[in-house]
Write a structure and sequence with these properties.
Helices cover 92% and strands 0% of the residues. By secondary structure, the protein is mainly alpha-helical.
């Protein structure tokens, strides 16, 4: 059986990896959303001209 200290380290490491992946995913979504808004505004300006 794995000692408690080792399993605790693995659990904390797993949570850290999952949290990091979620942060990267949400930052990616935010960047994509911001770029979409910019493109949408550019298209609206182009249609007005």
């Amino acid at each position: 059986m794995i000692p408690y200290e080792t399993s605790l380290k693995f659990m904390i490491g797993g949570y850290a990896v999952m949290f990091s992946i979620l942060v990267i995913y949400f930052v990616s979504l935010w960047v994509r959303w911001r770029n979409l808004i910019r493109e949408w505004q550019a298209l609206q300006e182009e249609q007005e001209n």
